[in-house]
Each structure stands twice: as C-alpha cells, then as structure tokens.
Specification:
single chain, 1074 residues, alpha+beta, 5 domains, 9-stranded mixed sheet, 34 strands, ATPase_P-typ_cyto_dom_N, ATPase_P-typ_P_site, ATPase_P-typ_TM_dom_sf, lipid transport, translocase
Amino acid sequence: MQSLASWLTDWNALFGQREWPVYCTADEVNIYFVRPNLFSVLSWPLCSDSVNLFHFLCLFLHRCCPWSRCCGMGDFRPRTVWLGHPEKREQRYPRNVINNQKYNFFTFLPGVLFNQFKYFFNLYFLLLACSQFVNELRLGALYTYWVPLGIVLIITMIREAVEEIRCYLRDKEVNSQIYSKLSTRGKNLKLGLQMHLRLTSVAHSSPPLPGSCFLRTDQLDGETDWKLRLPVACTQRLPTAADLLQIRSYVYAEEPNIDIHNFIGTFTREDGDPPVNESLSIENTLWASTVIASGTVVGVVIYTGKELRSVMNTSNPKHKVGLFDLEVNCLTKILFGALVVVSLVMVALQHFAGRWYLQIFRFLLLFSNIVPISLRVNLDMGKMVFSWMIRKDSKIPGTVVRASTIPEQLGRISYLLTDKTGTLTQNEMVFRRLHLGTVAYGMDSMDEVQSHVFSAYTQPTHDLPASRAPAATKVRKTISSRVHEAVKAIALVHNVTPVYEANGVTDQAEAEQHYEDTCRVYQAASPDEVSLVQWTESVGLTLVGRDQSSMQLRTPSGQILNFTILQMFPFTYESKRMGIIVRDESTGEITFYMKGADVVMAGIVQYNDWLEEECGNMAREGLRVLVVSKKSLTEEQYQDFEARYVQAKLSVHDRSLKVATVIESLEMEMELLCLTGVEDQLQADVRPTLEILRNAGIKVWMLTGDKLETATCTAKNAHLVTRNQDIHIFRPVTTRGEAHLELNAFRRKHDCALVISGDSLEVCLKFYEYEFMELACQCPAVVCCRCAPTQKAQIVRLLQERTGKLTCAVGDGGNDVSMIQEADCGVGVEGKEGKQASLAADFSVTQFKHLGRLLMVHGRNSYKRSAALSQFVIHRSLCISTMQAVFSSVFYFASVPLYQGFLIIGYSTIYTMFPVFSLVLDKDVKSEVAMLYPELYKDLLKGRPLSFKTFLIWVLISIYQGSIIMYGALLLFESEFVHIVAISFTSLILTELLMVALTIQTWHWLMIVAELLSLACYIASLVFLHEFIDVYFITTVSFLWKVTVITLVSCLPLYILKYLRRRFSPPNYSKLTS
C-alpha cells in the first residue's frame, strides 16, 4: 500500500469552502466546529493491507489571542508534544479561534469614546459642553451644547456597533468550519490532539509517488509550483490511525519563527526496541495557508495562534485614519486658532477691564461655532452613504466595504501595489506556441501538429527509396520527424504524474488499469508542466502512467510506449533547467532530454542563428519560453556517467558542486528541438484596467513571491510594462559593493521598468535605502519577485515614508495580508484560494477589473463630495460666527449670544442639514465619462478639492455673507431687537439654501426635496418660535422686502462670479460634460 508525507497545513486553505468537507473514519467520532486555519498538526503515513491512511506533520495557525501574554504565551519556546496526550503540555498556547473584532462587550463603550476623544476636534467639544456646568461660563441652556455632542456620539457608536456585529458574524462563520478529532479527550482543539483530514475532490486518488504528496503554497509565499512532501518513515507500519494513540511517542519542535522555508524537529518513539528517533525537516511539514492536492491527513497539533508562520509573517493591523480626515483635523486647528484670536481681540477692545479672563472663556464659548461640531457627523454619515453606493453598484457586483471610514482615500491613490498569482493572473497555464526554427505552430494550426504525430506512428518505419520519393515528400518527412521528436521530448521531460479517480461509473482500480481518459488528472510541481503534458495529449501523445522508475505514453493508434527512467535532474531556481535520462524499452535507445530557460540553454545547445531572436519575440508577447533539447547516449557513455554521478553523490564535502559538475559534462552540444510558449491566463480585463490606472497617474508595482522569469513574463503579458519600455533586471547582489555597482548601472537608464528579486532588494534596502527608493520611484513600473510577506509590507511602508503619497495594496492570498493592512487602502480579491486577504482588507472585490471603477468613479466622487461637504459645513458655521462677531462689536463687545436655544440647534440641524448633506449625491461628470477619461483622476492627486486655497476662499465668502446679513439687518430693522433676529436669521437660512444650489454641479431629485423640505420646516416652525421671533412682523411686506434685499446682496455677486469663471476659465470636466 502507498502512504503519504508528514505535513504542516492550513485548515482554512484546505476547508474554507463548503464543498470540501472533512471526513472521519469510524474511530473518529468527535466532530466540532472551529476556525479551520488555526492550528498545527503533526502526522505520519501509515501502511497496511486494510487501510491506506496518510499521516502528516501539520501546522495550523490562527490569529493570536489579545490577552496571550496574560495566558502565559508571551515567549516563543521549543516544545515537546506527546501524541494523544495534550494534558502533558508544558505551557499554555493560544486558543484555536479567530477574532478580528476591535472591541469586546466590556471594552466597546470605553474604546469607542477613547477613539473619539483622542482627536482634538471631539475633545474640544467635550470640554465646551462640560464648561456649561460652571455658572459664570454658562451662555444658555445645557441642551444647546450637549444635544449636538450626544447626537454625534450616538451616530458614531451605532456605526461602530454595526461594523463590530458584521465582523463578529464573519468570524463566527469561519470559526464554525468542521474538523474531525481522532483522540477522545477534551472538546477544544489543543496541542497534542490528532487530526484526520481529507479532500473530497481527490479522495480516491493514489499519491503521485509512494509516501509523498504535493502541496500548494501560493497563498503563503506566492509561488505557483507545487511542492513535494515526504513521509516520516517510522510510523508507516502501524495498521490503523487509532494505533497512533497506543504508542508512546512524542514530537520535539523548534520554537516558532518567521522562516517559512525551514523547520527543525524530531519524532521519538520510546516503546520500540531500540527507541526510534527520526529527524523532521521542511520536507515533512505543511504550513498554514497551504493546500494539499490529494490524500488524507492524520496529525498531532503542534502550533496554534500567534505561533504560526503565516501569523508571524503578518503585521498587526493598524487603525487607519484617512489623509482627508487629517487634513480636516488640521483645518479645525486653524479655526480654533482663529477662535482664540477673535476672543482675545474682543477682550483687548474692552481694555481687559474687570474679570477679563472670564470674558475670554465666555467669548470662546460664544464663538464656538467657528469650529463646527456638525462637521464630523456629516462626514461620517457621508462615508456611510459612499460605502453604500459602492456596495450597491451593479457594475462591480460582490464588492464589500469593510472599512467605511476611508472611502475618500480611493480618490487619491498614487501607488498601487499588486500581487500576481490569483490577482492579475488566473494561475491557469495554456499552451500557445511550438517553434521549430523554420516553422512555428500557434493555436490555429495545432491540427497540423496532430497530423504529423499521427503519421509518425501510423506510417511504416522504413523510408522510401530516395529515387522514388519526390523532393516535397522529403521535406514533409523532415518536418514531420522534427515535430514528432519535439512532441515526444515534451511528453517525456517533466515531473508530471497521471492520477486516476473514480467517476461513479468506473472505479479507481479499473480506471488505472485501462488508462481511462475520463478518470485521469495530472499532478505536478508546476502548472506549466501540466499544460505541456495536456498539450501533448491533445495532439495525440498521451502520458498514461508513471512511477519512480518508469513512464508510459500512448500513441494515437493506442499503442503503449514504455520508457525506463534512469536519472532525473529536477528544476532548481539556480540551474533554471531540468533534465531526464530515459531508455526506450522497444529499441533500447538511451536519450538525455533537457528543457530550461533560454538564458542557460543558449550555451548548452548546438550553435544556431534563431534561438535568441525567437525567444525575444515570444517573450514580448508575454509567453513563458522553454527551450527543449536532447542528446543520444550509448550504453557505455551512460554507464560512465552513472558511475561518476553515484560517486559524486556519496561525497561528504562539496557534494552539490561535484554533482553539478558531473551533470554539466553531459550538457554539451545538445540538439535543439523546439521552443515552447505557455501563457498564464490573465484575469478578465487586466490590460485595460492597468492602462486606465496608468493614464490616471497611478504607478503600479507588482510584488510577488513567484520566480523572476514568471513575474517578468506576466508583467509583459499584462502590459504592466509597455512595448516601448526597456526592462532592467537587477542582477543578484549579496554585498554592499555589488549593490553600489548595480545601482550605478541602473541610474544611467531612463524610463526603464525595474525587475528585482527579494534577496537583492533586502541588500539594497540595508545599505542604500534612500538611493534605491529614489530611483525606484522614478520608474514607470517595478516588479519585485521572490518577495516574502513581510517584505511586501516593508515596501509599502517605505513608499509611504519616502514619497508621502497614498498607497493601495491589492492581493488575494494569505501572503498579501501584511501588505494589505500596511497600505493606506487595502483591497482584497476573493479568489479560489480562500478569503484571508478579503477579510483583512478595507475593500473586497471579486475581480481585479473592478478596481478601475472603484477608484475612477467611487474614489473620485467620494473625495470630491467629502471636500465639498466639509467646506460647506465650515462655511455654514463661519457665517453665523461672523454675524455673532459683528453683533458683539456693535453692542460694545458684549458677550451676549445673538441666537439662543432652539434657533442655534435648528440652524445646523433641521433647517440646513438635509440640503447640505445632499451634496453627497453631487457629481461633476457621469461615471462613464470618468472611466473614459481617467486623466480626470490625476487632478485629484494634488489635493486641490480641499486645500488651503479653497479653504481661504470659503472663509472669505463666509465673512462677506455673514457681514452683509448682519449689517443689513442692523441697518434695516425698525425699533425692536427681535426684528433683528427675525430678519437676520431668515436671511441666513435662505442664503444657506441658495449657496447649496450654487455649489451643486448635477441636480438630483433628492436635492430638490431637501431644499423644499428644509424651507417648509423653517416656515412651519415660525409659529412655535414666538419666544425669539415676532410672528406678526414676519407676515408684513416690510419683512419680506428687507429679507429679499439682504439675501440678494449676499448671494447675487457669488452667482455672477461663478458664471464668469465658468465662462472664461472652465474646469477640465466642464469641457467633457458640454
């Protein structure tokens, strides 16, 4: 029986989807609901005649408990874990639950209040309201100060509570995934428990090689190739999984660390004679955020919580405050400074008479409207409306807003950092081209290749006499034989294994025996390999069987060709090539096949004049190019090579160098057979989306854990690098001197895209951080390959620090979480590999192409609307404050309020709130125009909608209108003070309603309703305001003409200025709307 490797695995990646449930055997009776990616399991392969179970060393991780240090989990330490005996653990470990909530039941209220009052804006109003408990400072009823502050806090707490409930429900859904527990003790997942996992999609698949299994790690490190994992040998003789609980054994594991490429541990069985002690390495492990491709896992929990690799490679989420909020906070500080200055001037004009220090505080309270308390609540409600609009946009279905406090950030992005696998690409490889030098076959001419392969195996093997064969036949036979040799080589030089599954009609054993096509799937360490083998199957030469020592191919006529695998040289990042030596069982011929990157194969194959040119042409089309070659060996040549190869592998010193030297002795003067071009399928509309972002002034950086060649091909294919741009591939550097020389070489290039590996990037950032970032920021595009998750976050942080610009990070996997959380805006793409990135992001989309509309339309509108709303709220408060200043200065600088009680509250609520807030529906251009002309987005990057210039303009407008209204009322009133209040307040309300109409770019029916509703509310409330307003006076003609004149004088000049500006200096968008 076959058995599988010991792994460390991510439960969420395995079973995040409902269609992949967990099965349990008869011995596994306890099934509980837990978060699926949160624990570490150690397990081993079993081998028996009755069962075929796979036992693995598995690490399942979850986010750390916030009180972990209180639970005795402050330090990372090695641990000894006894199988089936979690009670023997030496220390406490993190719980196996996920918790993404910011607050709990006890910390919600104090936490929300602290987050609100830690900002100057809200703290100022709290102190203002508290001051009214002092009799000497009281200016009116307490409710005039506490009601507005209470409304702001209640709305904020409701918003926070809604987000916390949503977060709780998401966590609960993930925590409710199923796992099966082999041991019978306890109810909670703890270290030492055995776990049994199986994937239904390949539940009946046999492993690719005895005792091994493939592992997908793209959600952890971004690499798309599958990893081979090997078994822990000393448990393979146990008859059943339950026997793991009967033996006396334990696992020693190293202390948790961030290195995802190494692991040190041992497995010890003490009841053996003698005791067995076996080492464990990365080859026996399966990390969190990885996925098993087939098989079953039975394991013991090793790591949980914050001790997992994926969690340690994830930075702590930060509370994001938008740049817009910081700018508004800065403006409120300026307004507060103006408030202090005005108060001091008023007291100074009184010559600091009497208790002048109390007068200063009274004036601070009197002019407190200069800093508008309604600004924060208006902006927060506006953000909620913007978030709702994003969720309800039918053109970007499935988009989720998880951080409703920063939608306007989307309108000012300067750098977009994106993952590759699953974000830009689908990770689905498609064979596109076969090139033989003199002839090339594309997708539209594969039938010719198929006919050549068919003829090669159906025609007689002997050639026709030369005298009887016409010239055309010779040429045709030559091409046919070359095509056949190329297809045969591609079908042999790989590490792909065909696996047969039961399909409901045919069981596994029968399918494997008869090579059933409908039951066969391919497993390999790279999707490129699978695409090549699938292509050879499509043209007639099918891989039907493989084990460690042999391979079987089926010809178009159904004949089975048997090949013995003599040697296998796997692909490595350093060698950039792989090779295989096979013996054809029918002829006895020994052939060495090799394929690899053109940069290394150019020096291995025989001289030719087309390889370099055609490789360049195919690479420019975004294809991954592989060069395929072969070399025939005699029996004597192979025996000589084998003897030297075995001797080299037995060396203790410099083994790798000696083995490489022996292999290189074969890699000379090989026959060039063909070039293959494979395309990694891009996500839908990636190219036009990237073009939109580029035209909008956004620089796109691609950060991936994949290989350099793969990343470069994808960058070209996605048009991240345009055709007229050069690419500078940063040479690998390890020292400061090498980095200095390479940076100097790069400095001499202009308008050039940069491609750099993670190791070289680390060296450059260590010694030349400033110089490197300066050069990289000048590049039109940057590709960073082989990046660790923490490196991605570091790049985002450096961009923020060095440029001061806003960044947006886009990713779909667990290895992108750190980058997403570090960026000013994090966007998660819900891909096939789970929802880790989506749950951690501020915004979640279903496809990369939705990013264009999210930024160009919603981001732009949110920022412009927020800027207009904030400045209008400031204008509304400055108007009434200016009127108060004029009133106080006329009446001998008395600290007496102009409006009291309900008037002051109603002014900023029912009388003007709805029209002002309706500005969140305003837009300058249609969404189709914003998408068609992304250059409009570029104007926002300079922050012009909300700047000191626009702020000063609104301040001047407020001072002008407030002065006109107040002086007009003083000039035109007759004999009673209440007439001043009636005239000025009515003129103020009408002025605000007209100014909203002046500000609006595109009318919405709700805006008209808001204007009419507010006016109706004011007219209706006049009946109840007899305490402040003379009801009989407002019905006279005198009142009406005075209010009309004051309102026209305050608004008409601004309407004229707006018309002249649009006439002689129109904004960019007006040209597009006309």
